[in-house]
Write a structure and sequence with these properties.
The protein is α+β, with helices and mostly antiparallel strands and 148 residues long. The chain has 3 helices and 9 strands; from the N terminus they run βααββββββββα. The strands form 3 sheets. The protein has a 4-stranded antiparallel β-sheet, covered by helices on one side. The protein has a 3-stranded antiparallel β-sheet with strand order 5-8-9, covered by helices on one side. The protein has a two-stranded antiparallel ribbon with strand order 6-7. 17% of the residues are buried.
Length: 148
């Protein structure tokens, strides 16, 4: 697994687009829905789709490509990485790396990839991949002896 790895786009992004289409459709036939469109769409976006991305790992670099244009894509050469750590979102109840308040309430609805570069620089990338795709990235890091 030291070669190419690419995560699939999260289903949340497709659901977000479908919700937007349905809200616009509803607003056309029932104009009062215009009031509800933005809060519903933004609520779903903030909770489920904020850092939707795909992660591509080839022999030379890690690329994090976000679905939305306002999040800046990240590209890091593998030779510049000293170690990788991560923090899990709310969905993995049995992980010791969950980010929660008081051991119960989710702090974030996304995962966090913490990349330590040589020269003591740290890059924290918030990622929201398809469910269980993040496990493939952590497995790759473990096989490359980069996981701390």
């Amino acid at each position: 697994m030291t070669g190419n790895l690419r995560t699939r786009p999260p289903i949340n992004a497709f659901v977000l687009g479908a919700i937007m289409i349905l809200l616009i459709w509803e607003a056309v036939f029932n104009p009062v829905w215009i009031i509800y469109m933005v809060p519903i769409w933004m609520g779903f976006y903030i909770v489920f789709c904020r850092y939707c991305c795909t992660i591509t790992i080839d022999y030379y670099e890690i690329k994090i490509n976000y679905i939305t244009f306002w999040n800046k894509n990240i590209s890091i050469k593998i030779e510049d990485i000293s170690k990788i750590d991560y923090a899990k979102g709310f969905y993995d109840f049995f992980s010791d790396k969950r980010i929660v308040f008081y051991g119960l309430f989710p702090m974030y609805c996304h995962d966090r990839l913490i990349i330590h570069l040589k020269g003591s620089k740290i890059i924290e990338a918030n990622v929201n991949t398809r469910l269980f795709e993040f496990k493939r990235v952590t497995t790759w890091a473990k096989e490359m002896n980069l996981l701390s």
